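Re: the 274-residue chain
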Amino acid sequence: MADCENYVTCRTAGKANMLLNERRTQILKHIEEQGFVSLQKLVEHFGISESTARRDVEYLDGISKVQKTRGGAAYIGESMTSFEDRTVAALKEKKEIAQTVARMVEQGEVVLLDGGTTTLEVARQLIGRSLTVVTNSVPIINLLFNQPGIELISIGGYVYPNTGVALGPIAQAALKAVHARRLIMSVGGITEAGLFNSNSLLVETERQMMESADEVWVVTDSGKFGRSALAHLAPLDSMDRLITDDGLTDEWRQRLENAGVEVICLGEPAEAAV
């Protein structure tokens, strides 16, 4: 560094910049994982001052990684975790959830599958069944293409990077012409306010999916509860059934059941849908 007066000053400046970059990277990762984080939560989680948290959020907002909101920040950047990495994460739980869901799907049904790593595993468990599958997910299309017994209907549109899901007006128009027995979908977060996802285009498309199905089943791991994201999708009572792992708390189970949602956790009997 030409501007450094001596080696010690140069080393100190370099270390400070490295620590600053590391902190902002960790803050960005934390915001992505949570969907939305308040400034106060950043202060508590990282042990920094509110002014430092505010400057870091303003920096991340300036490079279009987060959206600064009143009192916090929401993640809007591309996923820092690739689709392949997210598929591997919690694979055992996803597979068990998918197996539970597959046992409840009856032969001959029309099933609408949203994109995501958990719904991809659901699709894998449906191989060999006699079904009509409608999906906007390129990974699911690739998996089910030419599978005996499965009639596959592909929903087109703008394909969102990293997830391989078709979104936007073209996808929504195609979905209006579809009627399915049930929608099986995943979400980015669930709070008392309802279901959330991290992309407004995705949420608009998912709302049309919900309109196109008689029933809405949400498949998710228990880590999504208490987490919000950038875009609100629907209230809790928009779900007919929720299938999750055995980490769901009694408090959350009661809240969901009070909203009229049938809750099925891993290890519980899973009967065919009626």
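The CA atoms of residues 12 and 70 lie 34 Å apart.
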